[in-house]
Amino acid sequence: QLVDDYCACSMRSLDARVAFDNSGYRLDSCAFRVLANRCCSLRLLRFHSQHSWLVDQLLVPVIHSNVHLQAVYLDQAHWLTDSSVQALASACPQLTHLSLRDCHWLSSSGLEIIGSAWPDLSTLDLTCCWQIDDPGLSALLTGCQRLEQLSVAKCYGLTDESLLNLRSNKCLMELDMTGCWRITDSLLEQLTEFCRSLKQLKIRECSRVSLAAIDRLQKKRIVTDLKPPAAYRLFAAVDHNGYPMPQLNVQI
């Protein structure tokens, strides 16, 4: 009864990553049902990748019972589907932080749901969501124009086309595009021109980004995870006849 009363009235955070670890007891589906049976005041919900029992049928009722959720972290929840995203969208309008890192099941339809449900979403992590594409991300970014932190790292299908929608976002401060090898210098130029709040940009493994672009980012005081060589300078090299020599930018 004490546990039920606490869950119903006082518990604001359920972090299943550490539940019962100190006692050597691992949280399973039965224990989770008992714990979440009367939860109705949660603000934060977080799960661990080892919970293979976490499926839509178990999670969706908890979502519908906690309509004031503000932060949800479902990192590496491989056994969920877009149905859980739909449940969050319909039941939790106050959500501001969402992490779906390594949720390979997330589709473009899921992105469209996110974009239409939370215009005030501030933090979104889509790292390694391999199925998402330009149309889906474009729909999301059109709806979520107050994002402050966004990660699309290792989403290999994305190009400049979808990420250009960030130009209308005046709040963006941190953007992680690690491994998005299709993006180009043109995108970076657009982002630095329109996203005046941008402070941190991760572009490691973006093979089409040149050293010249990285140098321009640094001049605008945008912190990146790539540094041009110390001896690198932008200058017009000429041959012995005084004609400009072609330059090759190599990123290693």
What does this structure look like?
The mean pLDDT is 87. The chain has helices spanning 2-9, 29-36, 56-65, 82-91, 108-117, 134-143, 160-163, 185-194, 211-219; strands spanning 13-15, 44-46, 71-73, 97-99, 123-125, 149-151, 174-176, 200-202, 223-224. Helix 5 runs parallel beside helix 6 (134-143). With 252 residues, it is α/β, with parallel strands linked by helices. It has a domain at 106-231: Ribonuclease Inhibitor (Leucine-rich repeat, LRR (right-handed beta-alpha superhelix)). Helix content is 31%, strand content 10%. The protein starts with a helix and ends in a 28-residue tail after the last strand.
Shape verdict: elongated
Given as residue ranges, the uncertain stretches (5+ residues, pLDDT < 50) are none
Count the DSSP helices: 9
% residues in beta strands: 5-15%
Kindly summarize this structure in a few lines.
With 252 residues, this protein is α/β, with parallel strands linked by helices. Helices cover 31% and strands 10% of the residues.
Task: Give me some keywords for this one.
about 250 residues; alpha/beta; Leucine-rich repeat, LRR (right-handed beta-alpha superhelix); 9 helices; 9 strands; elongated
Strand-helix topology:
Blueprint: H1 2-9, E1 13-15, H2 29-36, E2 44-46, H3 56-65, E3 71-73, H4 82-91, E4 97-99, H5 108-117, E5 123-125, H6 134-143, E6 149-151, H7 160-163, E7 174-176, H8 185-194, E8 200-202, H9 211-219, E9 223-224
Parallel strand pairs: 1-2, 2-3, 3-4, 4-5, 5-6, 6-7, 7-8, 8-9
Helix pairs in contact: 3-4, 4-5, 5-6
